[in-house]
Amino acid sequence: MAIRDPATKPGGAARYVFAWLALVLLTLASFGAHQLPLGGFATPVALAIALVKATIVALVFMHLLEEAFSIRCVAVLNALWVALLCLGIMADVGWR
Amino acid sequence: MERLPAEHFQDLEQQKRAAHLGMWLFLTSEVLLFGALFGAYSGYRLHYPGDFAQAAAHNNVWLGTLNTLVLLTSSLFAAAAVHAARKGRRRAVVIFLLSTLALAVAFLVFKSIEYAGHFREGVYPGRHYRFAELPARGANVFFTLYFLMTGLHALHVLGGMAALGVASVSALRGAYGPTHYTPLELIVLYWHLVDVIWIFLWPLMYLVA
Question: Helix or strand or coil: residue B176?
Fold first, then answer.
C-alpha cells in the first residue's frame, strides 16, 4: 500500500492552518474551563481536551491519516499503553 | 539525478514506509519514557490530591498557556516546512524551519523565567525543597515531578532544536525537494511528539488546581 501524499490533495496547506486554529481554540477552551468551578471534573475535562488536541496533531501534523495501517497501529497502541499504565497505577493506589 | 532505493528495498516507496515505521517505533520508546513519569504522576496525584491542587495553583498559568501556544505554532511551522519541501518551495522550507527554531528558543526562554521564579522562592526538587508557603509533603512531590517532567521535556526541546538546526543547514543547501524530504519529515515527526507531550504536561502542571 502506498503512502498517500497530502501535498497532492486540494487544500493541503489550508488544513494545517485549520488544525492550528482548532488547537488554539481548544487551548483557550481548556484555559476557560480552568476558571470555572468544575470541582472533580476539572482534571477529566482538561485531559479530554488534551486528548482531542493530541489527536489533531497526530492526524494532521504527523500525517497519521495518510500513513500505513501498521504505523497507525503503533500510534494507537502508544496511547493505549500509557493510559493502561496510568489507570493501573491509579487503581493500585486507589484500592490500597 | 534519479534517486535509487537501498538495495534491500524494492522501491523508494517501501524505503520511505520503512523509515516512517522506524521513526514511529523510536517515538514509541520516547512515549514509554514519559509514560513512566505520567504513571508516577497519576499515582501521587491520587495519593495527595489537595497538595497537588495547591502546588499546581502556584504555577504561572499565563506563562504555561503562552508556552502552549508557542509550541502549537511551532508545530504548524514545522508541518509547513515539510509541505513546502513536498511542493518544491526550497526557500519557504528554510523560512519555516528557522521560524520553528525561533519559537523553540522562545519556549525555553519562558520556561527559564518560570524556573528562575521557582528557585527564588525555594521551590527545588526532592530534598532541596524549602518553599515555606507550601510545606506539605505532597507539594514537594508535585514539584519534584514538575521539574523531572518539564526538565526532561526541555531536554527533548533542545534535542529537537539540534535536529531542526541540522535540517535547516541541509535546507539552506537545497537538500529537500519533491523527491527527497523523508529526513525532514522524520525530524519534524520528533518535533510534533515534543509538542504532544507538552499538550498533556500543560493541564497536569497548571490546570489541576
Answer: coil
Where would I find the H helices in chain A? 12-35, 42-56, 69-95
First-to-last alpha carbon distance for chain B, in angstroms, is 59
DSSP result, A29-48: HHHHHHHS--GGGHHHHHHH
Residue-wise pLDDT tens digits, B55-104: 999 999 999 999 999 999 999 999 999 999 999 999 999 999 999 999 99
Q: How confident is the model at residue B1 (pLDDT cuts 50, 70, 90)?
A: low
State residue A37 phi and psi, 5-degree precision: -80, 75
Q: Is A14 on the interface with B (CB under 8 A)?
A: no
- Three-state DSSP class for B180? strand
**ipTM more than 0.90?**
yes
β partners of residue B180: B177
Mutation for testing the A interface, residue in B145, B199, B202 having most A CBs under 10 Å:
B199
Using alpha carbons, select from B209, B205, B208 the residue that is nearest to residue B68.
Answer: B205
Amino acid letter for position A34? H
A42–B contact, CB cutoff 8 A? yes
What's the Cα-to-Cα distance from B189 to each of A15, A52, B38, B80, B195, rounded to whole Å?
Answer: 17, 18, 21, 12, 10
Is A82 close to B17, i.e. CB distance below 8 A?
no
**What does the block give as the cell for B47?**
495519593
Q: Indicate yes or no: CB of B13 within 8 angstroms of CB of A47.
A: no
pLDDT, tens digit (0-9, with 9 covering 90-100), for B55-64: 999 999 999 9
Angle at B196 between CA A13 and CA B82, to 5 degrees: 30
**Which residues in chain B have Cβ-Cβ distances shorter than 8 Å to A67?**
20
**What's the predicted TM-score (pTM) here?**
0.93
Partner-chain contact A47 B203, CB within 8 Å: yes
Angle at B88 between CA B84 and CA B92, to 5 degrees: 45
